[in-house]
């Protein structure tokens, strides 16, 4: 098969760039740990979520200096982010929050616009993502996977003060 | 001098091809109405009347556009080409398989559409479990898939017969590419067929109580990614085989064209996880492996880009064009059969770049499930692929009916193309931008309780709606052009098949060793999926019961 000299050059440059690119993605994923939410962190019976730890106590819990765990249950069409007495999540600016979220019914999404927080919530699986909120504000948390008739209303907030 | 109809296809074959093409445009029209309404709803300019749901419309739009318009057009186009290049007419058996496929797909498709209209299946075209549609919806889908298999068998049958009667000869390039396209389709649809027939039908009927959600998503995306290559390969057939003839040039290299098709076949299936990067249940290692495999399609894509521009340049030089860009001047810009597909090629440059962003592990977190993604595939499938299919229509219908493309329709075609591009610039451009800002896809009008972020998205949604309206006007013009083509003056239109510039002996025969290629595809699939799927089937996974949440 005859391949023109220019085409060989073109392909060689293209393929070299491709491998550099894949190297960068690979290194940042495995050496620097910028991973998408993955793995079976733990699996959970989607019909019994509310009885199983940590989801029996949803809400935001301090786990260290400026470090919090947010345990959230999603359902059509909302998120449970705390007990009745304190349903709204609040953290001081500069806090690192570990979100631990699952779904009790269909597939939902979990996105905080303006950040890299973006993951799927699949019934039967627990999704986790971590984010440090440097700036104050009322961050919108929205469902970005179609989940039913009122999907566009499915949202909550985290307040950073 | 009065001319009669001079048909380039046997009328019986023409009828089969025409049935597919016209059905495709019928779906495009219905889908376009839905698309335009979606864009004005999201722009906050319109509220749907009479209890029509936004997600009901979106389900219809996704299925009509992504499944019906594309699949029907592709099968029609491929059948026309194999009839023309492999024997001059379809074999009776091929024709029967083609009609049987058409009947099954159409029957199944109408059931699916009825379920959507009855609001019993507002599950979008991805029908993610555990959202549960009426059983008829899944049965309808199964018929569509099985029908398309019959159409594929027809193409394989014609090809096998040609090989048998032309021993030792190289198969026609169009025929070879049609076989690769349908092979890709058959292997890819096995995934969705298993999902629908083994998982979803028994569950929706009530024979099983729960469904393995991760497995169903994985089976879906095992199919969902090659689906986009199923749209792209016929587009490439036009670019590789048809366009050289239309511009009065030659195919750059028969061998490289075949090689790039084989590479696309190999690397478009074992890669579905790049649609699941943001979900739990799959380990980062397997996600990364599939990302690497995904990026291998960069190689045949670069080859394709090189070949196409080499064809243009070679052709320019033969016609005396000088300088680095002289070849641009001698291209037939005023011929819609060239202009529309060429604009599709140009759109593919930003579209491909966007695809690289989507498939990159980390950058995907920024764009996943935002309108960026919707903007992306309106460039790929709704511009590159759609404009190429429109370009094909301007000669394919006259070829079948024994008529000619008039100057007037040609001109309307150019206007149509420009309008489509302008509409897309607005719609896809604002989808990309507002997607980067975080606005989610698949979401009806909302300002999230007037949250400041969401309010800032609104101007882009309005621009999106303006684009949507322009696109719809362009779409209606396309339908008008199709009708005009059906009533064009009698005459003869040649089937524009390019000839290779290199002698045919240069094409190595191993490219037609199907056993080898299919085995390689199977090995790659087993490599990429066995361990993660075993993991999903593990003993401690939980099934989910079904819900109707709309
Ligand atoms: C008149 C032209 C068109 C308009 C105005 C239009 C408009 C839209 C809009 C506004 C959406 C996004 C809705 C949302 O995410 O909330 C959408 C989704 C979509 N469009 Fe189009 N579109 C057009 C043509 C096409 C064509 C030609 C194709 C494919 C051949 C196509 C395929 C799709 C697909 C697959 C989706 C995704 C559906 C989903 O998320 O479930 N569209 N379209
Ligand atoms: Cu939702
Ligand atoms: Cu893909």
Overview of this structure, please?
The complex is a heterodimer of chains A (161) and B (550). Chain A folds into 2 domains: 1-35; 42-160, Immunoglobulin-like (Sandwich). Helices cover 16% and strands 35% of the residues of chain A. Chain A has 161 residues and is of the alpha+beta class. Chain A has one helix at 5-30; strands spanning 59-64, 67-75, 78-80, 89-91, 95-103, 108-111, 118-121, 127-133, 137-142, 155-160. In chain A, strands 1, 2, 3, 5 and 8 form a 5-stranded mixed β-sheet that branches. Chain A has a 3-stranded mixed β-sheet with strand order 4-10-9, with no helix packed on it. With 550 residues, chain B is mainly α. Chain B has a domain at 339-502. Chain B contains 16 helices and 2 strands. Chain B has a two-stranded antiparallel ribbon with strand order 1-2. In chain B, helix 13 (371-401) runs antiparallel to helix 14 (407-436) and helix 14 (407-436) packs antiparallel against helix 15. Chain B is globular. The model of chain B has no long low-confidence stretch (mean pLDDT 93). At the A-B interface, helix 1, strand 7 and strand 9 of A face helix 2, helix 6, helix 7, helix 8 and helix 9 of B. Bound molecules: protoporphyrin IX containing FE and copper (II) ion (2 copies). Chain A: Subunits I and II form the functional core of the enzyme complex. Electrons originating in cytochrome c are transferred via heme a and Cu(A) to the binuclear center formed by heme a3 and Cu(B). Chain A: InterPro entries: Ba3_CcO_II_C, CcO_II-like_C, Copper_CuA, Cupredoxin, NosZ/Cyto_c_oxidase_sub2.
